[in-house]
Amino acid sequence: MRLFFFLLISLYAFTVLGQDSSKEGSMKDAQFIIEKERKNLLPEVPRLFEKPPPPKAKEANGLTYTLEEIDAEPEILQRKISVLRAKQDILTKLYGTYIKVGYGNFVSPYLEGFFNNKRNQKYVYGIHLKHRSFQRGPVDSENSGEGHNAIDLNGKLFTKPFILAGAIQYNRDKYHFYGYEPPFTTNRDKIQQVFNHVGGNVALENYSDSTLIHYRFNTAFHFLKDFYQARENQLGFNGQVAYTMKDSLTLKLIADLYLTKYTDTVSVNRNLWRIKPVFLLPIDVFQLEVGFNLVYQNDTSSVVDTFNMYPFLEAKYTRNKALVPYVGIKGDIERTSFKDLVDENPLLAPQVVLLHTNQTLAFYGGVKGNIIERLSFHSGLSLANYKNLYFFTHSPRDASRFDIVYDPKNTTLFNLFGELSYANRAETFTGHLKGDYFAYKTGELEKPWHRPKYKVDLLGTYNLYDKIFLKMTLYWLGGIEALSLATNTSQKLNDVVDMGVGVDYLLLKKLSAFANFQNILSRRNERYLNYPTRGFQFLVGLTYAW
Questions:
Q1: Which of 84, 330, 380, 515 has its CA 20 to 30 A from that of 303?
Q2: Rounded to whole angstroms, what are the CA distances from 23 to 16, 28, 332, 333?
Q3: What is the pTM of this model?
Q4: What gap in Å lies between CA 390 and CA 353, rounded to an integer?
């Protein structure tokens, strides 16, 4: 519709424009009059000639602000925290040399000296000298006297990878065979025994925890000769290597070689070789040591088993260090030498028979740990079987001397033990107590001659203000049975009880006095039949250090 209307208007306009302009139009003259009848009036507004007052400032509510320029380099903060520092240990004055001189009853002079270098991180060395003799003894005065002399030189060299140590010593010990039946009718020189011993060793070991291989090698020798021309030469090599593999698995290899020659009326070669590989296996809360022990011996004195192999197994509970139980099984050849037997009993008759002891099998177990702080304990038991276990009996050739007798059949030994150790925090008081119970079941022999059934050792020390040093000892041995040649019967010996006390008093910075009292109960102790020991003994003297 709109389109139609638009077309119509366009057509009309086109028609008008197309007409001729010369012709007059038909529009007549007309006059248009426009009248304004309405007036638009606005109300008058008065003019204001006064300036409006300025706006009032808002109150600041009492707050004032100051803008200061900030320095781009702040001051260093003052540290208010105090750093705790460990108290530096005060090095005490170290005296490298001191000499002790004393005298006691039974006409017993005493002299001992220690000569050592002072603190040094690279090496240490020292010389030790000692003399102690008793001109008189418990039986027939000088017939039971004895004397002891010793010289010892030692040293160590410390390097980063290893420690090298060495020592050489000389000992001279004199005894008398005073276990004879009275009256004494022979020359005193014929009942004396003198041992001269020279020995030494060289050891090499590493100590770094950073390496996976730890080792220790030792070479030792000794030469021993008695008054009756019996002598022994021995050369020993000992080595131990431990290699830690992955997962804390450790392989340990222990090897020993002893070349020994004993000569009396005849010469005997006694060689022994031992190798013991062991694996250390940590399994959860347990540590296992598993291995075996191979021993070869070549002893020309008698026919013995030349080759032996033994198992070795030990299990230890390691979860709680305050309580560590363990059990194990083992076997070994327990080496015996002329020197070992002389150290245990110096009253042996000539032509000593020497055999190694075969520990065919041993079961053992125990527990160790701490009862309270600084009080530790260790207790356990073992049951072992032996062949050729040795004992002491009077020699039928001379009742004042002893022979070694062996039990060729099985000997069973049950051992129950316990020990306690204590030291207070300042270590002014220390104490150690150990007790053992032994039960023997012999095979061929009637009794375990001269072996004790129980043993107690006690040691206590007390330091009073670094001025007075006290010491107390107790040695108790009991249940000993001996074979009497006079009656050919068993004779039970009284318990050996030896109690002693000692005191050192610091007179000056470098000078102190000491007094030692032994066997204060004045008992007639007999460790071996017909050999009572000296009664109450005292030793007093002075010590000087520089």
A1: 330
A2: 12, 14, 161, 164
A3: 0.80
A4: 10
